[in-house]
Automatic annotation (TrEMBL):
UniProt catalytic activity: a 2'-deoxyribonucleoside 5'-diphosphate + [thioredoxin]-disulfide + H2O = a ribonucleoside 5'-diphosphate + [thioredoxin]-dithiol
NCBIfam families reported for this sequence: NrdE_NrdA, RNR_1b_NrdE
Task of the protein: Provides the precursors necessary for DNA synthesis. Catalyzes the biosynthesis of deoxyribonucleotides from the corresponding ribonucleotides.
Source organism of this protein record: Companilactobacillus mishanensis
GO MF annotations, alphabetized: ribonucleoside-diphosphate reductase activity, thioredoxin disulfide as acceptor
Protein name as annotated: Ribonucleoside-diphosphate reductase
Protein family (similarity comment): Belongs to the ribonucleoside diphosphate reductase large chain family.
Coiled coil, from the record: 329-356
Domain Ribonucleotide reductase large subunit residue range list: 560-582
SUPFAM superfamilies per UniProt: PFL-like glycyl radical enzymes, R1 subunit of ribonucleotide reductase, N-terminal domain
Gene expressing this chain: nrdE
Length: 721
């Protein structure tokens, strides 16, 4: 029959999955999801999987048909590959939800050229990931295969999807580019956006260095059109280009709140914006120095500064000026053109747009740079706000050649599954293997089309290991999300990620005899990075948290002393190591809650393009855990912020922190509320709370409107399982 001829009206798995949302006798019928998994394999996967007589026939077919790279297979003896595959089969992996199986087979599996038959199962996708990332090291390949089949480690979508494929995009997840204030840089960046969107994931671009609308070009006043036309060029580039049709091109643009075009920048996302300037698919982010919070708090006017005149006075692009430090000097300096607005007017505009669209993201740039252990300045973030790395500007001539090669960023990500990691027989070894896997992706990456990205990656070897499934883990342990126990647990979990990624990066530096560029100028080299671990005891204080980490070694002061000594002696290979990305489809495949955030619904509803609604019950949902699965929309967002703040203390980059609010806020969540209607003030209070808690970045604001008229499991307050 084949996948292309599959009549979805005659299959039962969609109907069975949909029945989860229909309570029976006040009970959520989770058994229907298990029936849907069985039906999906019986009706879809098994009859449409190509069969082979032997494993060798299977691999030969994949190589001969240009489905997988022969070079990856050739790095190992064939009998090792076959034994590793058999080992994976012997683990008897089973998908735990219909959504997990459905997402995997629809999004990740290699299919025949006509799309009619599956050529892989879950074990084989893991096999190719392990073989690629281990780069010929059989012990590492076995270790990585073990981590992935146990779902302790999950590579990000580009890596997991493309590993071993012959026809593929890049393994990296996203890119960061900066534009400098000249036409050559703008042209080069538009081309880079096309190229990167085609081969990889999302692209973040900062426009803060561009002169504002109305500023002079070559002495002619009112010549510049500012940042808006560049935004339109970039949006069209992303819309046109995607990764072999498998991932929609996506981009985010950032602008400093002290840029004169900031109000126009925000207005471009409004529903009623003029079509000439409106951006529909581009994500917006604002770069926010400390000075802005001070001006808002004191209800003062704020001055916006012309990047063109600032660069002429300071000799560096606008992004590299410390506005908090230089603000008063810039206000007094007559050489710098400036514009005056009310700080709270801008604050209100940010909140209004977040209510309407969920944008802009917020990057607290001074918080980022205070905590940055690397020599240099972080000036922006990425499409999902978690990547924060130092960059240097490039200089480009009229031939579009690099006169001075700067450094831009490519990031490759992976995620630990907290529930399964806490059951690892050797926590440290697990994290060390994952660090090696991510490092391979960095080493193998060479983005020829954008030399500044390739150059930055070659110097930094940066990676981003994160985590998902926090709410699932807490619910399984009967711990309320946002409780003191949950906050302490999160802090210690990320301390462990920090310690073991540092440990392994140091080992890699020893193995290769190489460190990241300018290591000797970092806070790691001078030892100051380790002060917080040597001056404070991070061991669990709460008895419940001590129980959770029973059997897992928490590094002692002596361990940190030893690590510090080794790092000062041998260095680190990876400039950056940790970042918490939002986890979308990979958290479904892992049957766990996304990232560190609370679940949104007991039974989550997903709109699939061709097949209507699909339902994903909260992982491990049972009568035993249901009381610990409160929706994010009914949770005080300060609890979410506190959770992320606990992790952020140990994360060298950032985290994608989404705020969830209802348009009608339930009584009792926020003590300042007298009227349930969500206001701009509510969002302003939460943004400021996040800033004062040391949060580096805020991702989307998601607003739940009360017009959802579907009655289902979420509306049945007395439901049991």
């Amino acid at each position: 029959m084949g996948l292309n001829n599959l009549d979805v009206t005659n299959v039962s798995y969609f109907k069975l999955n949909n029945e989860i949302n229909i309570p029976v006798d006040d009970k959520i019928p989770l058994n229907k999801d298990q029936e849907a998994i069985k039906a999906f394999f019986d009706e879809n996967v098994n009859p449409n999987t190509k069969k082979f007589d032997t494993f060798k026939d299977h691999i030969d077919f994949m190589i001969d048909g240009d489905f997988i790279e022969k070079e990856v297979v050739d790095e190992y003896p064939f009998d090792f590959i076959e034994s590793l595959y058999n080992y994976l089969l012997d683990q008897h992996f089973k998908f735990k939800s219909f959504m997990a199986a459905y997402k995997f087979f629809n999004q990740y599996v290699i299919k025949t050229n006509d799309g009619d038959l599956y050529l892989e199962n879950y074990e084989m996708r893991i096999l190719f990931n392990a073989l690629l990332f281990a780069h010929g090291d059989q012990d590492l390949a076995k270790s990585l295969a073990t981590e992935m089949i146990a779902q302790r480690y999950q590579p990000a979508t580009p890596s997991f999807l493309n590993a071993g494929r012959k026809r593929r995009g890049e393994y990296v997840s996203c890119f960061l580019l900066q534009v400098t204030d000249d036409m050559n840089s703008i042209g080069r960046t538009v081309n880079s956006a096309l190229q990167l969107s085609r081969i990889g994931g999302g692209v973040g671009i900062t426009l803060s260095n561009l002169r504002e609308s109305g500023s002079p070009i070559k002495g002619i006043d009112n010549s510049s059109s500012g940042v808006l036309p560049v935004m339109k060029l970039l949006e069209d580039s992303f819309s046109y280009s995607n990764q072999l049709g498998q991932r929609q091109g996506a981009g985010a643009v950032y602008l400093n709140v002290f840029h004169p075009d900031i109000i126009d920048f925000l207005s471009a996302k409004k529903e009623n914006a003029d079509e000439k300037v409106r951006v529909k698919t581009l994500s917006l982010g604002v770069i926010v120095p400390d000075k802005y919070y001070e001006l808002v708090r004191e209800d003062k006017d704020m001055y916006l500064f012309s990047p063109y005149s600032v660069e002429r006075v300071y000799g560096v692009p606008f992004s590299y000026v410390d506005i908090t430090k230089e603000y008063d000097n810039m206000v007094k300096d007559d050489r710098i053109k400036k514009y005056k607005i009310e700080a709270r007017e801008l604050e209100d505009e940010i909140s209004k747009l977040q209510q309407e669209s969920g944008y802009p993201y917020v990057l607290n740039i001074d918080t980022v740079n205070r905590d940055n252990p690397i020599d240099g300045k972080v000036i922006m973030s990425n499409l999902c706000t978690e990547i924060q790395q130092v960059q240097t500007p490039s200089e480009i001539n009229d031939a579009q050649e690099y006169v001075k090669m700067g450094t831009d960023v490519s990031c490759n990500l992976g995620s630990t599954n907290i529930l399964n990691m806490m059951q690892s027989p050797d926590f440290g070894r697990s994290i060390r293997s994952m660090t090696r896997a991510l490092t391979y992706v960095s080493d193998a990456s060479n983005i020829v089309a954008v030399p500044s990205v390739a150059h930055g990656n070659k110097l930094s070897h940066s990676v981003g290991l994160g985590a998902m499934g926090l709410h699932t883990y807490l619910a399984s342990k009967h711990i309320e999300y946002g409780s003191p126990e949950s906050i302490e647990f999160t802090g210690i979990y990320f301390l462990l990620l920090n310690y073991w990624t540092l440990f392994e990066s140091n080992k890699i530096a020893q193995d290769k005899g190489e460190t990241f560029y300018n290591f000797e100028k970092s806070a790691y080299a001078d030892g100051s990075y380790f002060d917080k671990y040597l001056n404070k005891d991070f061991a669990p204080k709460l008895n419940r948290v001590k129980e959770l980490f029973d059997g897992i070694d928490i590094p002692t002061k002596a361990d940190w002393e030893e690590l510090k000594k080794n790092i000062q002696k041998y260095g680190l290979y990876n400039e950056y190591r940790l970042a918490v990305a939002p986890t979308g489809s990979i958290s479904y495949v892992n049957n766990t809650s996304a990232s560190l955030q609370p679940i949104t619904r007991l039974v989550e509803e997903r709109q699939e393009k061709k097949n209507g609604k699909l339902y994903f019950p909260a992982p491990l949902l049972s009568n035993d855990t249901i009381g610990y699965y409160k929706s994010a929309y009914d949770t005080d967002m300060r609890k979410v912020i506190d959770i992320y703040a606990a992790a952020q203390k140990h994360v060298d980059q950032g985290m994608s922190l989404t705020l969830f609010v209802r348009s009608e806020i339930p009584e009792g969540i926020y003590e300042w509320k007298t009227d349930p209607k969500q206001t701009t003030r509510d969002l302003s209070i939460l943004r400021n709370y996040a800033y004062y808690q040391g949060i580096k970045s805020l991702y989307y604001v998601r607003t739940f409107t009360e017009n959802n008229d579907e009655i289902g499991s979420n509306e049945c307050e007395s439901c049991s399982i």
